[in-house]
Amino acid sequence: MQWETVIGLEVHVQLATRSKIFSGASTAFGAEPNTQACAVDLGLPGVLPVLNEQAVAMAVQFGLAVHADIAEVSVFDRKNYFYPDLPKGYQTSQMYHPIVGPGDVEITLEDGSTKRIRIHHAHLEEDAGKSLHEDFHGMTGIDLNRAGTPLLEIVSEPDMRSAKEAAAYLKAIHSIVTYLGISDGNMAEGSMRCDVNVSVRPKGQEAFGTRAEIKNVNSFRFVERAIAFEVERQIELIEDGGSVVQETRLFDPDRDETRSMRTKEEANDYRYFPCPDLLPVVLDQAYLDHLRGQLPELPADKRERFQNELGLSAYDANVISASRDMAEFFEAVHSECGDAKQAANWVQGELSGALNRENLSIANSPISARQLGELISRVLDDTINGKAAKEVFQALWNGQGESADEVIDAKGLKQVTDTGAIEAMIDQVIADSPAQVAQYCDSEPEKRGKMIGYFVGQVMKASRGTANPQQVNGLLKEKLDALL
Amino acid sequence: MALEESHVRRAAHLARLAVSDDQASGFVDDLSRILDMVDQLQSLDTEGVTPLAHPLDATQRLRADEVTETNQRDTFQRCAPAVENGLYLVPRVVE
């Protein structure tokens, strides 16, 4: 039987506010345990929450970026449950009147095609603390620094049909929140976390199958792997005559599988009710217009502009626009050298490769966009050849020189295009390599093309890489063929 | 609404309240009377009335995003039964 996968995602995004959603405690990552948990975060008697205006603004900006309806009135509710990292005994969330209503996000698939994924809603809530299960004499350690950190939970419609689409959606959300600057989007530090709802149904069937919710899917790669495993598990289960149980499962990246989180027989009953400590949040049109005016150019718009105005391929435009830092770096390189395709090649190739090797982000690139742009200009105006360009790149990367021109001068990399000089080097190489010349002359004509590589290598070496390779090739062939 | 002792036990469990057998039957009566009153309220015609999230006719004031709290961990942890390395210790939680 042909099966179809149906996926919906709940993405929790930590908002990059300085202080918590309901208190003035710091949200900075990595502080000593419990040094950033104040009386409000600890839920001490008599404290009152006061909503952070920046958290509201960030939620609204997200909503505007995904073309969503922003609620004129939104309400905070209490979600009640007991767990030691939730000191109040409830999480303040938005159940019935979330701040961001229905919207949509465009995702780009590997083949360059696009698809619209609907967003059901997004709501504001507070994060819980952290439980540390290492052994403290048989007890659990609790760090409440994270308690009260603002979260935006973004709930999609079940519109995704493959693990690839789910990963593309997660990347699109990541792009949007980092473009907006409302989150650092750092999945390794938990700034973006993801729960995945997966079900399967026979192809063509309208009704959804029973879904399982997978928790703890905290990287783009894990999303794909967790879904792949879960889909296979569900199909096997059904084909063997069983049925999928609605449950929460945990993804274990080490074993590459999902496991049932054996919930107790008693289902959670969160007993939501409006939080009496917080009044309804009312937003007026002027405020929304003000925030709309502050929106940056968003990834989808940049992608389209890179493709239509700068002539980048769909693939290049998609990769470069995915991160705001990379897009802005690319734009700066392009404005310096004037060639979008070359700028894209260098940013995605040499530069991204070097950044990956040293585990640096593009924001911390040792080479500036101006330096790279200038380097590309020197290739375009034939001052240096491609090989020398890589050497200049490496030198600039290592801080040996302020500009491409300085490195080119210091290292004598200026391309030799003077025919006389190149001919002299060729003559020398031919004179020094009688055996190779004899071999060249004796071989079949169709094999000579390959053999010429040896001579090109020698000439390039003699010129310390500065000879124009096309000229060397042409002149060599002439001179060697004259010896036949 | 007819409330049974099992309802009381479940509500008590969710709220982590220890309720003795004697108390449980008393709560069945008390809570049933409260629910009867709610039933009475629900007999009102509220067609076309917007549900109220808060009894006050006011809207939420927002605060500026500034860090105003300082580290008072030592003070807060003085009333905790067990702490270590700055962490609050609680009976082991196993999912």
From TrEMBL, chain A:
Alphabetized InterPro entries for the sequence: Asn/Gln-tRNA_amidoTrfase_suB/E, Asn/Gln-tRNA_Trfase_suB/E_cat, Asn/Gln_amidotransferase, Asn/Gln_tRNA_amidoTrase-B-like, GatB, GatB_C_1, GatB_Yqey_C_2, Gln-tRNA_amidoTrfase_suB_CS
One record GO biological process:
glutaminyl-tRNAGln biosynthesis via transamidation
Annotated catalysed reactions: L-glutamyl-tRNA(Gln) + L-glutamine + ATP + H2O = L-glutaminyl-tRNA(Gln) + L-glutamate + ADP + phosphate + H(+); L-aspartyl-tRNA(Asn) + L-glutamine + ATP + H2O = L-asparaginyl-tRNA(Asn) + L-glutamate + ADP + phosphate + 2 H(+)
The Asn/Gln amidotransferase domain is annotated at: 328-480
Q: Does the keyword Nucleotide-binding belong to this entry? A: yes
What family does the entry list? Belongs to the GatB/GatE family. GatB subfamily.
Q: What is this protein called?
A: Aspartyl/glutamyl-tRNA(Asn/Gln) amidotransferase subunit B
Native species? Vreelandella titanicae BH1
Q: What's the name of its gene?
A: gatB
Automatic annotation (TrEMBL), chain B:
Query: Could you state one GO biological process linked to this protein?
Result: glutaminyl-tRNAGln biosynthesis via transamidation
Taxonomy, superkingdom: Bacteria
The record's annotation in InterPro entries points to: Asp/Glu-ADT_sf_sub_c, GatC
Q: Which GO molecular function annotations are given, in alphabetical order? A: asparaginyl-tRNA synthase (glutamine-hydrolyzing) activity; ATP binding; glutaminyl-tRNA synthase (glutamine-hydrolyzing) activity; transferase activity
Reactions the enzyme catalyzes: L-glutamyl-tRNA(Gln) + L-glutamine + ATP + H2O = L-glutaminyl-tRNA(Gln) + L-glutamate + ADP + phosphate + H(+); L-aspartyl-tRNA(Asn) + L-glutamine + ATP + H2O = L-asparaginyl-tRNA(Asn) + L-glutamate + ADP + phosphate + 2 H(+)
> Cross-referenced Pfam families, in alphabetical order?
GatC
UniProt KW keywords: ATP-binding, Ligase, Nucleotide-binding, Protein biosynthesis, Transferase
Supply the EC number(s). 6.3.5.-
Concerning SUPFAM superfamilies, the annotation shows: Glu-tRNAGln amidotransferase C subunit
Q: Give the quaternary structure.
A: Heterotrimer of A, B and C subunits.
Give the matching HAMAP family.
GatC (MF_00122)
Q: Which NCBIfam families match?
A: gatC
In which family does this protein belong, per the annotation? Belongs to the GatC family.
Function as written in the Swiss-Prot or TrEMBL entry: Allows the formation of correctly charged Asn-tRNA(Asn) or Gln-tRNA(Gln) through the transamidation of misacylated Asp-tRNA(Asn) or Glu-tRNA(Gln) in organisms which lack either or both of asparaginyl-tRNA or glutaminyl-tRNA synthetases. The reaction takes place in the presence of glutamine and ATP through an activated phospho-Asp-tRNA(Asn) or phospho-Glu-tRNA(Gln).
* Protein name (database record): Aspartyl/glutamyl-tRNA(Asn/Gln) amidotransferase subunit C
Q: What is the lineage of its organism?
A: Bacteria, Pseudomonadati, Pseudomonadota, Gammaproteobacteria, Oceanospirillales
Report the gene name: gatC
